[in-house]
């Protein structure tokens, strides 16, 4: 009977206020298997909850409420939503309708703004036009890129840390030289 328990939104909000994470990462990937080892830069937003392995059942119940995301178990258990559609259409509306009241409230407001910018620029899918190689590419306006970087920095400040991977570790030299990133 307890397996089918639907968690109330207030319980989930309180749980996320204590254990949740709204993150925004700017990442660099080097594709060494390709000729010339091209470097790709991209933004990734995620909503996560990390717990001990013994608490996996509560994460399953939270996942059932959202009906999206995945649960991963290694040394710990995590519930993560990284799909931009799900973040935009499920996670943001949930926390907009059921607001957070404690320390994650400010993170959520900043993070939701970043997700809106990323969603506006998401790749729409494959292009099957002659002369195109597959994906359409959308460039960020300079003010949008600057705002994403501001948001990322503000979230890091709220967390009281440099971030999981270190301050500006994955920022591109080209963006730094263009003035879009802090030097």
Give the N-terminus to C-terminus distance in angstroms: 56 Å
Reading the helices and strands in chain order gives HEEHEEHHHH
Radius of gyration: 18 Å
Low-confidence spans: 132-136, 162-183
Q: Any idea what the CATH superfamily is called?
A: Homing endonucleases
Derived from helix and strand composition plus strand pairing, the structural class reads alpha+beta
Number of strands: 4
CATH top level is Alpha Beta
- Supply the number of helical segments: 6
Give the biggest beta sheet: 4 strands, antiparallel
Total domain units:
1
Give, in spatial order, the strands making up the sheet with the most strands. 1-2-4-3
Determine the strand fraction and express it as a percent band. Answer: 15-25%
Q: Globular, elongated, flat, extended or rod-shaped: what is the shape? A: globular
| Quaternary assembly | single chain
Mean pLDDT comes to 79
What is the percent of helical residues? 40-55%
Could you explain how this protein is built, in words?
By secondary structure, this protein is of the alpha+beta class. It has one domain: Endonuclease I-creI (Roll). 42% of the residues lie in helices and 18% in strands. It contains six helices and four strands; from the N terminus they run αββαββαααα. The protein has helices spanning 9-19, 56-66, 84-97, 104-120, 142-159, 173-178; strands at 20-30, 39-51, 70-73, 77-81. A four-stranded antiparallel sheet has the order 1-2-4-3. A hairpin with an 8-residue loop joins β1 (20-30) and β2. The radius of gyration is 18 Å and the shape is globular. Residues 132-136 and 162-183 have low confidence and may be disordered.
